[in-house]
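#dry-run=false #mode=assembly
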Amino acid sequence: MNPPADKSQAAVGVAGRNGVVIPQQSADRTGSDYRTYEVYQRERVGQSTEKIKPIQLVSDAYRVDPYPLLDILRENYPCYRDWLGNCFWITRYDDVTSVFTDEGNFETRPKAWYYGLSHFGRDLGEALPVLEAQAACMDNRSEDIAARLADGLKDAGGGNLATQFAAGFAVELLLVTWGIPVADTDQFVSRYFAMQRGTSWRPSLQQAGKQALDELVHYFEELLAARRADPGDDMVSVLAQLELDDGPVTAEDVVRTLLEGDHQTLHGALANLWYLLLTHPQEFEKARAERRLMKLAYLETLRHSTPVLSAQRFTRHEVERFGRLLPAGALVVCSAAAANRDPRVFDQPERYIADRADMCHREPRGQYRADGLASGIAFALGPPSKHPAVPEDRPRSAYALTRDAAVTASQTLLATVGDLRLADASQPQLAALSVGEMHTCWNLPVEVPRG
Amino acid sequence: MSLDSVLADLAAAAEDPQLAPREFPLMPEGEAVDMGHAEDGTPLIDPRIFDSPEFFRNPYPYYRILRDHYPVYHDKLHNCYWVTRYDDITECYFDDEGFNTIPKGSSSGVLGNTQLELSGIEHRRRRNLYGQHLVGKSLENRIPAIERLAEEMIGDWTRAAQQGAPYIVDEDGVRSVELGAAFANEFPIRVVCEVLGFPNEAQDDFFYWYNSMMSGLGGSDTHKQGVEARQHLEDYVAGIVEARRKQPTYLYDLDGNPISKDIISKLCETKVDGDYLSTEEITSNIALIVGGGGETTRGAILNMWRLLLSHPDQFEAVAADPDHWDRAFHETLRHSSSIGGQPRHNTYDIEMHGVTIPAGSLMQMVDFSANHDERIFKDPEKFDIFREDLYSGKLLRSGYRKEGRCSHMAFGVGPHLCPGAWISHQESVVGSKILLKHMSNPRLNTSRMPKDVDGVSPAPMGIVSTRELWVDYDLR
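#status=ok
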């Protein structure tokens, strides 16, 4: 067996019987986690899961419309043992939220882990100055950006709203937040998308992602040095000035922070919001008639068609839950898409109702319910914030910032163009680029009536 | 490239129909589908290939890519790590504390909680209870019964041919026989029934239960049928166990003298930690013996005959010297075994070939690949019963390297070495000797064999063994 690639790590590990390197901490544990087998229940006739085949959960049907398959899981097998994917699917609202708020039993692995780069840089996204810089940008720049993009659509008499407005808005906001020079825009954006998509199971995306990640490290080396010398108010400048106990901020830290951040909820939910509004004329009318309803329409979008369908958690130790024994290290796939359409929680869950009465309309605190009502789950934003909704000593949560940016963008679009409709004969749909990626609308051709 | 075109490309990708596993093109045997390359030329592995028909018929070129480029391959689609080199796998098999067998693997759904899923002292203690009945003196005692069963089955062929059985055709003094249906499918199950002491009238049910269980292993389309069959088998065996607790039954030699108690009767009077084994414990492991003793031996017999008959010089050597059957058996299991590999879970966070593997991950140890590891076996795709680098003596649990040669991995190695290895060996060799005795000038009938995608050559063995094997021989 080859020696470990990283010698510094080998120093803190011990060579096991296999020449395999076992980190000291693990090796200190006594014995294995042996359990007598009576503890594990085998599947009985009544528990067999013939209504679904695991291959369907990675099929093209799931990529385009996962909801019928997820209904089968939620209504029949609330903790589905997927032999093919070697995981457990959790699909009911109360179950999913119970896992999300239980860091003690369920581990969230960072995106860097999916790259096999657990020791790559530091994720500084939670540092207060970073949060403040991000919040300032999202609050102050959203309207300008949205107005400019909306003008573009108006001048052209229409276009692809999903890319030119929704994706464009999220990307431009990202660019100004991070202070990327205009000249670098295109290259940066293609590398950024490649890096975010590189956590996939697809080898071609992994390769492209790894390459993009290396290039971004190289790119930020120069930018970081420049911002150190001449700081602005963008994220890179703020990161450059952070004082940390374990050494100055490096380009790797910057890229790691960029990687662990979330653009999907803003981009995906904004595209899905407009997809749903344009395909549900009644709800669109409501949102146009009453300005405040745009926020509710956005929240209902997160529930009805969440862009991040599921999140992965790993059991930290053996956990007995959902009538099953989940072994240590087991992968638990929590499906927000299934939970958000749980009829135990939401009335007529498959319907898109902008001003839905049985959903919480304010940001939940610490848990997923408030005012006795459930809220839609949007995972990529993390569990509900434990801080007050408008904290004095820190910016609002990512959930609130993203919501406000998307709502501002949508209201600005509506104010600029006046009216919008789907292009004739267009049949937009939601789909992921590949199984496991963001579920959103990529082609939403619209016309702006001249008036 | 402009920002608009970056986004437009993504939008176009969303419209692009995705490749489904069944859409991987079928390749000539031994060649891999091109799944793309990294910048440095390293071939990429798309994990959907593992679910594809192409992989099932032609797995070896893909394992070669894994061995050469990804000795530990993190498959995020199946949430596991594939381990493919001989040395890595054997070392992991010997460390049953560091690489445990707790039941997260795909077999436990149908087979239940069995020996496969125990580790350490608990495993050793119980394994010996079962294993001792399948080796040494106990095994020798059973050989006459095995011979009798084989003679009975083959002796029935002429009657079957006259009654128009679809698997035997007599024409112009030549008999074409499908060795699977006529012999290998049922023979191992009958042997299992015999050594377990099940009555003859239960054998048809057994055959059905066994087939259902095998096709219903984890996650397959027929999973429910498998679980049901397992339940019926369990109910049936539970009745037998209760009966044997009161009234033990015996095995008899050809002269009708009792040799020893059958396995179930012995297990009924066995104690662990001062307690008798529970009925559940006995039935689970009986299910494992039924499951493990059938398909594997069937595949060994069919693959061995197919490989020998397609290498006539080696077949001649075996026919001339029956001692060569042992070599043929072991080389067959190296070249085309019936068991793909075994799952393990690492007990600790580890690093292997530079890949960090968190504790509790599923590690797929691919025995198929180890058997074709060119680091151990020269020219591994070649079938050669006289190869110098394969150990083909008596299999030992304590080691897999003897006399400077390595054993094949079809039975695994280490504490979980297949307890049926010896009896399976005897069944295959004894059965084959008797087959040879009854068949004059046997040769493959390729025109009747299931065809590969080209419609001409016989379907490859792949990872599911030979499905049908048609052999012609001269009627004397």
